[in-house]
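YM 10:42: Peptide/nickel transport system substrate-binding protein sequence, as discussed on the call
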Amino acid sequence: MKHSKYLAVGSAAALVVGLAACAPTAPEPGESSAAGGPSDATLSIGTTTDVVNFNPVLGNSRTDSWVTNLMYPHLLSISDDGTKEAHVATDWGYVDDTTGYYEIRDDLTWSDGEPLTAEDVAWTLNAVKRDEAPGTFFGQLGNLETATAVSDTRVELTLTQPDSSIIDEIGFWGVVVPKHVFEPQGSIADFANDGSDGGWVGMGPFVMSDFQVGQHYTLERVEEYPLVDGGVPGPAEVVYRVYPDVNTEILALQSGEIDVIANALPPAQVEQLSSTDGIQVIEAAGLGYAHLVYNMDKPDLANALVRQALAHAVDYEAIRTVVLQGQAVSTGSSALMPVLAKYYDDSVTEYEFDPELSRSLMEEAGYTADSDGTFPLSFRLIYSLQDSVTSQWAQMVKDSAAEAGITIELQGTERNTYLSMTNEGDYDIYAGNFAIMDDPVTNFALSYLPGGAINYTRVDDPELNALIEEGMVTFDEDDKIAILREANKIVHEQVYDNIMYTQNLFFAASDEWAGFISKPSELLSIVNPLSLASAYPVE
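YM 10:58: structure's back
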């Protein structure tokens, strides 16, 4: 499918954490495993947060993505090992090192009957770039100069410099919106797309029909969806219902109030629900990681010795054993995870849990403990209350830091508040996880370059910047691997990111439904568009 020597590299290898895979195999693009065909049934799904943005180029929460992905397509999908797969695009690659392209399907139609063409793709890319629509999508477009529809089915991207990852990453992370609906609204960054001007126009298996904040988001089946076998989605409706936490979702699933839990199961619930009558547990590959990030805009945390002290004050193995129930593995405190087999460097090892070393580093940084052995400073750690796993290990981080005389104050908030605080830099320490970190160069650019969309450390390191930028313009795989490994050593030594573990994830659904197709991460899992379009009630 991809022919050019300029193809992006950096595909991940499959991650196994010692648990037998029970997810069905994804079909080829345009096919599904649906055996039941269209039904009159409603598929109800639990979530723990409301939609923040109905505009898919702005969405920054999982619920945003879960809902808008059912209406707005991506050019590419992803496999369990991180490689990209066809979706709206059938072919993609590079004409030369500063020109990329996508060939798209010619049989797709927006829900108002207008055809989806390369002009929609080009307009979306140019509008997000022009209006600097904040979010991960915009963060992928740094080296895009312009996108041009050269035919109804081909769009070409002119780049400001060589970028060996941009075509795969835009294809996967970027969505396509209807130009004829979004262009009249002015700035794409300001369009709420909340249905108040006559409803929604999408090109997915479902389209929004009604919602009530804090209650539900209802989407109705479209009658023509060529990306699923048979051309018609299975459920007549998909309804996302909002619950306060995953435990309430589990009770709703057990009572039959919902059919699927969108959130990943807490590790402690996996074995129990696997043996519960009427419930199936489905595994999704993990391409992300959990981490702690120290905000270098805060004077104390600008000191590398303090960040190193904090890194050595975490009992990583205890967290993985107690909280993750052994369903997680160490990354070696490395941003190049073991799943990224070509890039992984086992010479970068996990920060040792050593409270006495932490104390020595704090003293070297110029701090003196009081008579109780506590240093005269404290750090505010934020996390999402809806993330039950992080909520548990955040307390363990606080407790182990106290052994080193370091005070951490926990601030758990509702998820959307947590996301807002993250974007505003309103934290000392950020605790959370990234769902998919599939391409090392792109991951490093977004995470560690100044202005990167997920640069939560607020790092601006000239040596690191130069290595990342060199990696972006390097197409030779061996050279790129060497560059990224060198960059990773800087991240590790300076503690620009403290990556704690990676894990496969597990999702629960009623066994009265079948046909789900698992995709990597909590972001996609079994609530990705192809999966929900393929689902059908068991007779």
